[in-house]
């Protein structure tokens, strides 16, 4: 990596995982950039689900307003792995890469199929017109389960967002639909073809046993994956130590991000994001 890139990220406040309303975030790309600047972030990656639609909007806003922030082009790709949805973040990608565009189109088709099937199941649960409402809520962005959860909450079917997953749309529940995502290997390969680096997003959030988490990391490494997201808001010290140990054991680089979707008391852009000593930061590969 060039000295200029090293210097660019030295002593910076960095958040490598955030979402806009081009997927399931609440803020527009421009609003997200403004919030990042207000929070004194130096570097922000926008990593919408299976979409790069917000990147050019965000960069144009930065250029027009001459804002003091560096945008890292990113994406969060959904993959299927042994019945789990595993998310792979791509950082420093070329959003105009042909292989990436093709994969995004395939992923969006799978996302739309899941949404329509989920809507049909929720109709049978007595929730009328929910697909249309979720689609309207998503607007031009990628439709996700979060949009269905927000409608279920708004209509009083659940008392909190997580309740929508626990009662209706989570794995094994009445309206769950198994998605047809790409494999981890394909996601990593396409990210690399787009000039980017591949990172397992929030590995501690998949409800995997220690044995299965290690199995995931091993397969990711065999697929030529590059890094793990080892720092997120609200991680315990033990979780951080475990993720750092995996980085050392499997020679993976370390990333960090808030997984920001909207302002909340528990998480926000850049909050509690500091890489531990002794890790190799993911931007060494940019």
Write the layout of secondary structure elements.
Blueprint: H1 3-9, E1 14-15, H2 29-38, E2 43-46, H3 53-65, E3 70-81, E4 84-91, H4 98-124, H5 130-138, H6 145-154, H7 161-169, H8 184-193, E5 197-200, H9 210-222, E6 227-231, H10 237-250, E7 253-256
Helix pairs in contact: 2-3, 5-6, 6-7
What does this structure look like?
- The protein has 286 residues and is an alpha/beta fold.
- It folds into 2 domains: 208 residues, TIM Barrel (Alpha-Beta Barrel), CATH 3.20.20; 65 residues, DNA polymerase, domain 1, CATH 1.10.150.650.
- Helix content is 43%, strand content 14%.
- The chain has a 7-stranded mixed β-sheet.
- Helix 2 packs across helix 3 and helix 6 packs across helix 7.
- The longest helix is centred in the middle third of the chain and has 27 residues.
- It is globular, with a radius of gyration of 18 Å.
- The protein starts with a helix and ends in a 30-residue tail after the last strand.
- The model has no long low-confidence stretch (mean pLDDT 94).
């Amino acid at each position: 990596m060039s000295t200029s890139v090293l210097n660019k990220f030295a002593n910076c406040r960095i958040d490598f995982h955030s979402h806009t309303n081009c997927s399931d975030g609440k803020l527009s790309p421009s609003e997200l950039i403004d919030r990042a600047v207000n929070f004194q972030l130096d570097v922000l990656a926008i990593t919408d689900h299976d979409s790069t639609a917000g990147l050019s909007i965000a960069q144009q806003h930065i250029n027009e307003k001459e804002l003091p922030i560096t945008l890292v082009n990113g994406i969060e790709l959904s993959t299927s792995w042994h019945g789990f949805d595993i998310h792979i973040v791509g950082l420093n990608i070329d959003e105009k890469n042909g292989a990436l565009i093709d994969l995004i189109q395939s992923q969006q088709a799978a996302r739309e199929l899941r949404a329509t099937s989920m809507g049909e199941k929720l109709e049978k649960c007595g929730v009328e017109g929910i697909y249309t409402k979720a689609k309207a809520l998503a607007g031009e962005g990628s439709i996700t389960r979060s949009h269905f959860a927000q409608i279920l909450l708004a209509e009083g079917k659940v008392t909190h967002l997580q309740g929508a997953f626990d009662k209706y749309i989570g794995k094994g529940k009445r309206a769950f639909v198994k998605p047809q995502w790409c494999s981890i290997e394909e996601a990593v390969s396409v990210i690399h073809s787009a000039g980017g680096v591949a990172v397992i997003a929030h590995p501690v959030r998949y409800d995997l046993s220690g044995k299965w988490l290690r199995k995931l990391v091993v397969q990711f490494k065999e697929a030529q994956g590059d890094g793990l997201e080892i720092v997120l808001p609200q991680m315990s010290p033990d979780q951080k130590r475990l993720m750092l140990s995996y980085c050392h054991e499997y020679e993976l680089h370390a990333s960090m991000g808030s997984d920001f979707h909207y302002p909340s008391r528990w998480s926000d852009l850049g909050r509690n994001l500091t890489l531990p000593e002794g890790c190799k930061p993911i931007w060494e590969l940019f």
